[in-house]
Amino acid sequence: MKERDKQRYLKMLPSVDRILQQDRVKDLLDEYPRWLVLRAVQQVIEEERIGILSSDHDTLSEDGLSLEYFSKRVSEIISTLGQLSLRKVINATGVILHTNLGRSLLNLEVLQNLITVASNFSNLEYDLKEGKRGSRYSHVENILCELTGAEAALVVNNNAGAVLLALNSIARLVEVGTTNKTHLIDYRRAITNDTALLLKVHTSNFQIVGFTSEVKLEELVYLGREFSVPVMEDLGSGCMIDLDQYGLTREPTVQEAISKGVDVVTFSGDKLLGGPQAGIILGREEVVGRIKENPLNRALRIDKLTLAALESTLRIYMEGERAVEGIPTLRMLTMPLQEIEKRAKSLYRRLRKDSSGNFHIEIKDDNSKVGGGALPLQDLPTKVISIKPVHLSVEGLEEGLRNYNPPIIARIDDARLLLDVRTLQEGEPKIIEEAIKMLTVNR
Ligand SMILES: *Cc1c(COP(=O)(O)O)cnc(C)c1O
Questions:
Q1: Cα of 75 from ligand 1 centre, angstroms
Q2: What is the sign of the dihedral through the CA atoms of 386, 391, 396 and 399?
């Protein structure tokens, strides 16, 4: 295009104000904040300006300069610009504690409390009885002690922080034994006059099979007593219910660790406990007291929203068996196969309607995973919907679902797309139905 023509086209570009006056754009202003709409309008004008300057054609289609075209592009851009970066996704992977997808979900009761505490002033660090400064830890210390039998408790930002804080308060880390084999004698030999703590870390997100040997917590506690050295266990997951009654592999519970006489135990708030991200430190008063006094505690401190969600989550545990129903992580983990089957059949029927000529669909047996550092070898029998699209590749379908709004995260196995119904939440099957239809029907 000649320079003269380019200049002529540039002059034809509508102004920001004119675009803002279009009905379609005005509607957007009702729905989205003004700064966002303005940014989209500016982006469209800039796109067109660059398009004109770099055009190799002799003329431009007048369509590309119509106000209608600009309005339409503004609306398209807003639908991506308007999205938050951190947002809801649908987890169809069957991995319950998916670290990349946010681990534990909070139930509505817990959320309600979180909203109240977040949008109001609270007695976070205020003792209402005494009318003076209180401790933020007081809100969960009693309930944690009651649920687990521990003498004292402290909560921090996450379990990695809990371990760091405990070690920093009590000891310097010296490794004993080997990756696959650690015997009590390894601990015994490593004890010197300077030994301040014996630490055992639970292999919560991996298991070594074959020639292995690990020291039992009871043995370590015994050794600790012999040398008057406290014993700590990093449990990782912090399971508080007996999983074997649901046909799952036994995971050592927090209560067991405490009853075996361990001095300090640490675990996560958002793994098998099913609460918010947090690091929980429990144990004997004297040892936990030393940890509480560590100035580093201030840098790892738990925030008020987490604290609110944690207290509500712990209250559900006070109701005993109800915890399994009230805590989404536990509900997904212990979901009976019958319910999974029912869910799978229902999703199958929804999808089946649109399958003819567009995709092959069947229900298959598969395994879900606990994920997120718990029960690494546990098989959780499940039912998955297996889909093979006709008009696009299975990778194309997976990508399309991933870029859907809301994004749907699925697995691919053996050239089929697999949707595990175990981790789907209320209302999500309908969204999946719409997405699969949109992506697979030949247009
Ligand atoms: C997961 C895990 C951690 C880290 O916990 P975060 O809450 O993710 O910081 C530490 N130790 C063990 C054994 C774990 O399984």
A1: 44
A2: negative
Say if ligand 1 is within 6 A of residue 251 CB: no
Between strands 231-236 and 411-413, the pairing is unpaired
Q: Write phi, then psi, for 56 (nearest 5 degrees).
A: -95, -10
d(CA 328, CA 312): 13
pLDDT mean values, one per 10 residues, the chain (443 residues): 86 93 93 92 93 81 80 90 91 96 94 96 97 96 97 97 96 87 92 94 76 89 96 94 89 94 97 97 97 96 97 95 92 96 98 94 96 79 97 96 96 97 98 97 75
* This model's pTM is above 0.85: yes
What does the domain layout of the chain look like in residue ranges? 3-81, 90-98+333-441, 108-326
Q: For the domain with range 90-98+333-441, which CATH number is right: 3.40.50.2300, 3.90.1150.180, 1.10.510.10, 3.30.1330.100?
A: 3.90.1150.180
The domains spanning 90-98+333-441 and 108-326 adopt the same CATH topology: no
The response to whether residue 276 sits with its C-beta less than 6 Å from ligand 1 reads no
One-letter amino acid at 93 equals T
CA–centroid distance, residue 322 to ligand 1 (Å) = 26
